[in-house]
Amino acid sequence: MDKYECLVCGYIYNPEEGDPDSGVSAGTAFEDLPEDWVCPVCGADKRPV
To answer: Average pLDDT, stretch 17-46?
Structure first.
Protein backbone atom coordinates (compact mmCIF):
# COMPACT_ATOMS: atom_id res chain seq x y z
CA MET A 1 0.00 0.00 0.00
CA ASP A 2 1.21 3.45 -0.91
CA LYS A 3 1.48 6.35 1.50
CA TYR A 4 -0.22 9.64 0.63
CA GLU A 5 0.89 13.19 1.48
CA CYS A 6 -1.49 16.05 2.25
CA LEU A 7 -0.72 18.79 -0.25
CA VAL A 8 -1.66 21.49 2.26
CA CYS A 9 0.38 20.55 5.35
CA GLY A 10 2.53 17.57 4.40
CA TYR A 11 0.81 15.02 6.70
CA ILE A 12 1.57 11.48 5.54
CA TYR A 13 -1.34 9.02 5.54
CA ASN A 14 0.06 5.52 5.98
CA PRO A 15 -2.53 2.82 5.20
CA GLU A 16 -0.65 0.33 7.38
CA GLU A 17 -1.38 2.57 10.39
CA GLY A 18 -4.74 4.02 9.33
CA ASP A 19 -6.04 7.02 11.27
CA PRO A 20 -7.22 5.64 14.61
CA ASP A 21 -8.09 9.10 15.97
CA SER A 22 -10.64 9.41 13.14
CA GLY A 23 -11.89 5.83 13.44
CA VAL A 24 -9.99 4.54 10.39
CA SER A 25 -8.59 1.06 10.98
CA ALA A 26 -5.07 -0.01 10.08
CA GLY A 27 -5.02 -1.55 6.62
CA THR A 28 -7.47 0.96 5.12
CA ALA A 29 -6.32 2.06 1.67
CA PHE A 30 -6.50 5.80 0.92
CA GLU A 31 -9.07 5.08 -1.80
CA ASP A 32 -11.28 3.39 0.81
CA LEU A 33 -11.32 6.31 3.26
CA PRO A 34 -14.81 7.78 3.74
CA GLU A 35 -15.59 10.69 1.41
CA ASP A 36 -15.96 12.98 4.43
CA TRP A 37 -12.51 12.08 5.84
CA VAL A 38 -10.27 15.11 6.37
CA CYS A 39 -6.58 15.48 7.12
CA PRO A 40 -6.21 15.08 10.89
CA VAL A 41 -3.61 17.87 11.02
CA CYS A 42 -5.03 20.69 8.89
CA GLY A 43 -8.59 19.59 8.02
CA ALA A 44 -8.06 19.53 4.24
CA ASP A 45 -10.65 17.36 2.53
CA LYS A 46 -9.90 14.19 0.58
CA ARG A 47 -9.89 15.10 -3.08
CA PRO A 48 -8.09 13.90 -6.16
CA VAL A 49 -5.27 16.04 -7.46
So the answer is: 95
